[in-house]
Amino acid sequence: MNTMNRRRTSFALALIFAAACAASCGGGRQSAQDDRPPLVPEHMRDDINGRWVRVPAADGKTEPISWVFDPSEPRQLDILEQKVEGDAATFLIQMQTHTGPRARNPRSLSGQLRVHYRLESGLVLREWQIDEVENVSFRYVNEPKPDANANATNANGNSDAKANASDNHGANDKTKANGNAPASPAR
To answer: Using one digit for the tens of pLDDT, what is the confidence trace for 134-161?
Structure first.
């Protein structure tokens, strides 16, 4: 009788273990669908950082560039379409961005991109990762370079243009370092 109880207990434990393994290993496809983490489109603005895409010029005359999305660049992003099927998701987005204010080659970029996500499964976590960024109609335009003389300042904090054009008239007229607004009166 003692042997019979051990067999029943062993059999019951084996069934429980098998059921637990099937559930945790994704044995039921329906439960695997239900435990997917949410794909939050608002996170796409951060997810795309570090990704690159080949971008042709809007005029079609200039060479295409490879663009890497940088966290510091300003961008506007609108989702036009989204499709989630199993462990894959695709978004069609409209994006506008441009280089930072100190860029050597200032550019603005806009158009549509198709962003492909896939669900990565680890031992504990499941998370959405960008698999590919596909250019649909994303183009760039070269912007005029800022005038180097407009931003240069001399040792006194005056713009070069003001320093070169200064004379003895208005000796008490002072300007702030930006050269645009009057400073507080001299003491």
So the answer is: 999 999 999 988 765 555 544 455 544 4
Is 157 a domain residue?
no
d(CA 171, CA 67): 50
Q: Any idea which residue has 């608002």 for tokens?
A: 42
Q: Confirm whether 163 is domain-assigned.
A: no
Per the confidence metrics, is the pTM higher than 0.70? no
Look up residue 187 and give its two tokens. Answer: 């003491």
Domain membership of residue 173 (yes or no) is: no
* DSSP code for 105: S
C-alpha pair distances (Å), 92 with each of 18, 50, 73, 112, 134: 42, 19, 20, 7, 9
Tell me which residue has tokens 């407009």: 150
Q: Give the pairing type, strands 75-85 and 65-68.
A: unpaired
Give how far Cα 129 sits from Cα of 37, 84, 119, 121, Å: 11, 13, 6, 10
Residue 43: other Cβ atoms inside 10 A: 11
> 130: domain range?
38-142
Q: Which two tokens stand for residue 54?
A: 């080949």
Report the CATH number at residue 91. 3.10.450
Does residue 24 lie in a domain region? no
Q: What's the structural domain count of the chain?
A: 1
